[in-house]
Design goal:
The complex is a heterotrimer of chains A (103), B (212) and C (96). Chain B has 212 residues and is of the alpha/beta class. Chain B contains twelve helices and four strands. In chain B, helix 9 packs across helix 10. Chain C has a five-stranded antiparallel beta sheet with strand order 4-3-2-1-5. Strand 3 of chain B pairs parallel with strand 4 of chain C, so a sheet runs across the interface.
Amino acid sequence: MTRVHDRGGWPGAGAIDRQEHQLADWELLADALVQSLASPHRRVIRIDELRRAIESLPAAEYESLSYYERWIAAVERLMIEKKIVTREEIDAKAATLGEECRA
Amino acid sequence: MSQDHDHRDEHAPIRDGGHASPLARRARALEALLTEKGVLSTADIRSAIDTLVSRTPADGAKLVARAWVDPAFKVRLLADPKAAAAELGLDLTSYARLVVVENTDKVHHVVVCTLCSCYPRMLLGPPPAWYKSLDYRARTVADPRGVIREFGLELPPKVEVRVLDSTADMRYLVLPRRPLGTEHLSEADLGSLVTRDSMIGVSDPKPERTHV
Amino acid sequence: MRFREGDRVRVRTDDRAGHIRTPAYIRGKSGWVAIAHGEFRNPESLAYGGEGLPKQPLYLVGFRQTDLWPRYSGPPTDTLYVDVYEHWLSPEGGSA
């Protein structure tokens, strides 16, 4: 079984884009949400759960999303799976945030 | 399970460095909901961001420079990296296990995580984008010399290249070789030669700047 | 810990559904135990909200690159090391 995240020796890989990338605010936030949810005094999620949720993304989505986009998509799934939030709540909240949260 | 992501389908995927991602907005929405519900506090999130940006490759470089000037420290660093880091005032107790591997004129180490992006953040800060890229993850295990060459370092065949694929609770930091001709440099000056990339193993430290 | 440093081991070939931390490219390959790291919670359970117990011994396992990649272009002395949990390893005769 080929799994999309298991990249060692993956055929067709090309030159490495070595450009440095400054993390955008939302990327810092994505990282902070994960670290806070997984922190020993909260332990709402384990990092292993995050990895599993990322690996469970549809292959095309895994390939096309950027790194922290995958994290957000995965955190969303975990929060819904754990019945902490619903997708409808996230949709509604995202709609109210509007333009102010542009990266 | 796969069709419930329609909120993204209308948008072209935005890569790192792009502008607003639809997922950026959802990150903000999650932040708001999780704090409203008391799952997280804004203090948690602020403190996580502080931790994230406070660690930089300068921490790793301090350890390397000390190991270069103090052979007894190097022995301790290789034997018990966290205890050695504590000697320099770096508290790594809350992080994953750390292993330090030494480059010599016979062995060159390079670190990758093929399954995700495991990285010694406790000493290098957040990983660079290329470390997390699918190309780096695919190629470093199968063609490490080619990858290292792309970063500008040609390793002779007599040097054993050792790839470390971090797949578990271990994080690997490379102790690079001290550049030749740096005997007269202070520990602080040596530290400035130690690059992030040399502690991942895709390159060597900067050579000493020659004065003209 | 079933294995000691220097023991020859082979990575299991079986694939299984769910979250695993044993990359495909080492499955079925033989190598040697370089470091016995100690025991850790099992990620295959942690990934689904479990406690990861019983803990699993974890080893740094070394491989010859030429054993992993039939077309490896570097010298035969090049090596690769991966952290592997004990239940993914079986013993192999001899020592490294």
